[in-house]
Amino acid sequence: MQDYELTEAQRDEFARCGWTTLPGFVPEPLLSELEAVYEDLLRRRIAVDGRDYCDMTGDYERPVEDYAILNVMLPRRYHRALGGNVYETRAAAVARALCGEDMELDYDQLVAKPPHKQEAVFHWHQDLGYWPVTPDTRTASFWLALDDVDLDNGCVRFVDGSHRESALRPHVPLLGARGDNHTMVAAVDLERDPIRPARLRRGDATVHHERTLHGSGGNTSDRWRRGYVVAFRSRDTVARERAMGFTHSHNDPPAVLARIAADRRGAEG
């Protein structure tokens, strides 16, 4: 399959707003092939270790049947055949076009909201608020829709232009410590911040900057809201993360996460 051709309008929107939409990024029947593996991971027909299968809205001890946002970290680690799929390949080409030729895959993730889960809120955050302090922060993060998504089933919303703010907004752990829940929360002014939803059709994707504020509301609809994330960072940055012991797994040692949080606080000073 040919690479996805970015338009000048998409390049401009990514630079100006911190994100853009990629219509028809993965067409059928290729999307259905990815969906089959996605469902095997989501339904636990493929085993996922420890906290890499978790609920992003609650503590790590919550029973699976009560999950509001089903989250699978590093799915290609648990199903190696997923690596190098058409979505990854297309996203890699777009990441290089937007951010430079040295971009490589950093992590992947599956995030799903079942129907009628009003509490399935993904809190406002900037991706960089989760990650170690590194000299080069270039990132292209992709979100592929496996379902039509809109406000009623919890589509992602972005704060336009927030990537151009001089500093990250303060982030605090949802439950007081990342050892209890991985989720971080940043402050957003719902009256003043220019919030725009990413309404997508199945097979569409978004790509966003690492500093762009984003979050999503609960799912009040009869439909699922399934997303597939791949994120690309510079080769040097990925190597620095791994040298710190940081892999984006929720099973990364608490001491590593604590050190990263302390370094982040120091950098934000």
Task: Tell how many strands the DSSP assignment holds.
Answer: 13
Percent strand = 15-25%
Overall SS class: alpha+beta
Please give the share of residues in helix: 10-25%
CATH architecture: Sandwich
- Rg from Cα: 17 Å
Strand order in space, largest sheet: 1-11-6-13-4-3-2
| Mean pLDDT over the residues | 92
Helix-strand string = HEHEEHHEEEEEEEEEEHH
Large-scale geometry: globular
Attribute tags:
single chain; 269 residues; alpha+beta; Jelly Rolls; 7-stranded antiparallel sheet; 4-stranded antiparallel sheet; 6 helices; 23% strand; globular
Description:
- The structure is a single chain.
- The model has no long low-confidence stretch (mean pLDDT 92).
- By secondary structure, this protein is of the alpha+beta class.
- The chain is built from six helices and 13 strands.
- The longest helix is centred in the last third of the chain and has 15 residues, at 254-268.
- The protein has one domain: Jelly Rolls (Sandwich), CATH 2.60.120.
- The strands form three sheets. Strands 1-11-6-13-4-3-2 form a seven-stranded antiparallel β-sheet. Strands 5-12-7-10 form a four-stranded antiparallel β-sheet, with no helix packed on it. A two-stranded antiparallel ribbon has the order 8-9.
- 24% of the residues lie in helices and 23% in strands.
- It has helices spanning 8-17, 30-42, 75-78, 86-99, 235-243, 254-268; strands spanning 19-22, 53-55, 70-73, 103-113, 122-125, 139-145, 156-159, 171-173, 184-186, 195-197, 205-208, 214-216, 225-234.
